[in-house]
Specification:
Layout lengths: L1 E5 L2 H18 L4 E4 L6 H12 L9 E4 L1 E4 L9 H8 L11 E2 L8 H14 L5 E4 L21 E4 L2 H7 L13 E4 L2 H6 L3 E5 L5 H9 L17 E6 L9 H11 L2
Bound molecules: fructose -6-phosphate.
Length: 257
């Protein structure tokens, strides 16, 4: 992992956006994996800014969201397909139909999940995936105790995740869906590269377990230790429980001098 620790969100957004622009410069028809939630919002704002500055085009790109709630009306403002359109896609030149997400409304959710994995394969795989992390260590909505090699599947959200996400539903945990469709950890691991973002004290334990704990289904994000190309971008609070934070800072400074 390349681990960068920064004092503010703008710096994280700048470094993360540059990583994605670099992928675009090598491959105009790049395939971008997208996380929702609050962590990547500054990154998406910066990508939109870079797009308007002419540094990146999405005209030949496709995107694949990590996950989707099950049980929300299709037009619900917190549905992840809507979220990603509102916060990124609608401000770019990505053509209609090129932004994909798991189908949380399919009559047969399992068949829809398998079709989503196939769609990612048909697109040639994801070139770079944006990731956040739950306070319980999930990536996508892969909650603790699941398979480390799972494919896109229907999942159940932990109470902790529903409590964390209640802030998007007027603080009402009962309004947060109990189920989701998520890329599996096996699917996520096939992405060729990752930009991972975590900010705030609430993520500190999960981040420490991800980077310095054993690889374990208890902390699903720890599977990323097995991936060769993960850029981890943290603020000081999210990095605060790392035992070797000073060493990671030194390595980052030497490699990005
Ligand atoms: C969202 C997703 C989740 C979030 C995580 C953190 O598509 O896959 O893993 O990245 O729950 O959410 P925030 O950034 O809102 O704290």
């Amino acid at each position: 992992m390349q681990i960068g620790i920064f004092s503010n969100d703008n710096e994280i957004a700048r470094v993360g956006a540059q990583r994605i622009v670099d992928v675009y410069r090598n491959k105009e028809n790049f395939v971008l994996g997208l996380a929702t939630g609050s962590s990547p919002l500054p990154l998406y704002a910066e990508l939109i800014r870079r797009h308007k500055a002419g540094d990146i085009s999405f005209a030949h790109a496709q995107s694949f969201n990590l996950d989707e709630y099950v049980g929300l009306p299709r037009d619900h403002v917190e549905g992840y397909a809507n979220f990603i359109h509102r916060n990124l896609i609608d401000h770019t030149d990505m053509p209609e139909g090129a932004a994909h997400g798991p189908d949380g409304w399919a009559d047969d959710l399992n068949a829809g999940a398998a079709a989503y994995d196939q769609a990612i394969r048909d697109a040639g795989g994801i070139d770079i995936q944006v990731l956040g992390i739950g306070s319980d260590g999930h990536i996508g909505f892969n909650e603790p105790g699941g398979s480390l090699v799972s494919r896109t599947h229907v999942g159940v959200l932990t109470e902790q995740t529903r409590r964390d996400n209640a802030r998007f539903f007027n603080g009402d945990i009962d309004a947060v869906p109990t189920h989701c469709v998520t890329q599996g950890l096996g699917t996520i691991m096939e992405s060729r590269a990752h930009v991972f973002i975590a900010t705030g004290q609430g993520k500190a334990e999960a981040v420490a377990q991800m980077i310095e704990g054993g690889v374990s289904g208890r902390w699903p994000a720890s599977i990323l230790q097995m991936h060769p190309d993960v850029m981890v971008l943290l603020d000081e609070a999210a990095a605060s429980q790392l035992a070797l934070g000073d060493f990671y800072r030194e390595v980052w400074d030497k490699e990005h001098a």
